[in-house]
Amino acid sequence: MNRRVHIQTMGCQMNVHDSARMEDLLAPMGYEPWDSPRGADLIIVNTCAVREKAEDKVYSYLGRLAEIKARRPDLLIAVAGCVAQARGAEILTRAPAVDMVIGTHAMARVAQVVAERVDTGRPVVDTALGDTLPLAPLPRKRERISAFVTIMSGCDNFCSYCVVPHVRGREISRPPEEILAEVRALADQGVKELTLLGQNVNSYGKKEGMPDFVELLDQVHGVSGIQRLRFVTSHPKDLSPALVDAFSRLDKLCGRVHLPVQSGSDRVLAAMNRRYTVGQYLEKLSALRRVREGMAVTTDIIVGFPGETRAEFQQTLHLVAEGDFDGVFSFKYSDRPYTAASGFPDKISEAEKSRRLNELIELANEIGLRKNRALEGTVCTVLVEGASRKDEREASGRCPDNRTVNFPAENARQLVGTFVEVRIERGNAHSLWGRPAAGPDRTRAQEVTHAA
Ligand code: SF4
Known about the structure:
By secondary structure, the chain is of the alpha/beta class. It is built from 14 helices and 19 strands. The strands form five sheets. Strands 2-1-3-4-5-6 form a six-stranded parallel beta sheet, sandwiched between helices. Strands 15-16-17-19-18 form a five-stranded mixed beta barrel. It has a three-stranded parallel beta sheet with strand order 7-10-11, with helices on both faces.
């Protein structure tokens, strides 16, 4: 008899990827993926521990699942991923309805963990970390247009606020031939856009003495069928001149880089153990913008790091204005388990962190809107992903710089996977709106298409 597994994924793209892998691993046990917790036999919560708020969300979701389990005692509940790794057996005490705790590397053993729970009837906790890539790639079926390919996992940087090295383990890079085989298989399935994924892609291969990240990019770029190439995430200290240069050589490499700066104060950056200064960051930012016209750069900022003074926060605002970022992901600092910063003195109050966050968001939105408006009148090549979420009569897709573009289309679903030249008529705060550029203007329009 077929059973149903619902995986509730929280957090980053890495988790989305891990959830898909767990579905694959559970299929031979007869589990079919199920969209809703209702009617599922097994519910796995794939969690994020990067911020306190994300962890709180896990426990409140588990509270709701406990109510379902009270009505259906045969329901199995598992907590997987970063919170599972960070908290281990403590989760069983705090949320007694949970049957299994499956750490970041144990997700590769999800089938064995479920089998053990079923056989013994007792809770199972598996948080052992190994020294191989936790989830080996499996043949994939789902991706049609865009796909993520994990090139490495873990992190060795130990930024003082970050739980990732503690829950994802040390950096491990996948051999290039394995990555290339996966990329070719995806291209054969019709995937056109690829994002190479890792916590710190710029240090790919260094430890293992394998080809470095730029060499890997060159090889992936050579795979026919793949038309757009992206990567996340880059640590600014490891962004090399060779990688900057790759943007001038590799035309499939999309002109958008996510380069988290975190703070505009050198003192705070040192306390965060980021190992670059504001000046060094800005030099790299200028180099990226010099090498590719229209290069979009997004960043992350943490406000209210322990000891951050009002003047240091002003320096961050100043940096955000000077950096002219195309997007800013801003977060309030929160203590995370095992991290150095959780023991730092001079914690900033919640009220002050909220005030700083609001100021930063206001500034970032102003810049984002101005930059989107500046694109009005240009034409961009949109890879169509589907119908717009707000209006079925519009198609939605992305420019090479990853901006979302919506445009009228009667047949949005039939356009999925095609490239459409769209003339931008309106720049909104977080997206662009336009119309297909056709007719006599088209040739000229293509000439002004912003860089791919
Ligand atoms: S580079 Fe720093 S912030 Fe990024 S995952 Fe590693 S420790 Fe965390």
